[in-house]
Design goal:
By secondary structure, this protein is mostly helical. It has four helices and no strands. Helix 1 packs across helix 2 (28-39).
Length: 105
């Protein structure tokens, strides 16, 4: 399972990356590598954090964190409703079969 970093670490790393990109004439790749080494992070982790922050800020196209959470919630709700619907169909078929059976006196 991936290691979880506290939000403070993420925010600090992103701020340091922005400062590094603004202050020097290095490429994004070199800045990410430099900050990742300084903060003992994987370069890919920092790159993904930056991409996600850019998407959330509207600077880059993609699904924002809020949209992603809403989609996840809606998928869960749809799944629950489908299960409930199947249960109701089964119960309906059961009771319909009970009504069709001849009664003994």
């Amino acid at each position: 399972m991936p290691r979880q970093y506290p939000p403070e670490v993420r925010q600090r790393a992103l701020r340091l990356l922005e400062v590094t990109l603004q202050d020097s004439e290095v490429s994004e790749f070199e800045a990410i590598r430099s900050v990742a080494v300084k903060m003992s992070l994987a370069e890919e982790t920092l790159r993904r954090w930056r991409r996600k922050a850019q998407i959330d800020a509207g600077e880059r196209p993609g699904t924002s964190s809020d949209e992603h959470a809403e989609i996840k919630r809606l998928k869960r709700e749809v799944s629950e409703l489908r299960r409930a619907n199947e249960l109701l169909k089964s119960a309906s078929a059961f009771f319909a079969a009970e009504l069709d059976r001849p009664t003994t006196k």
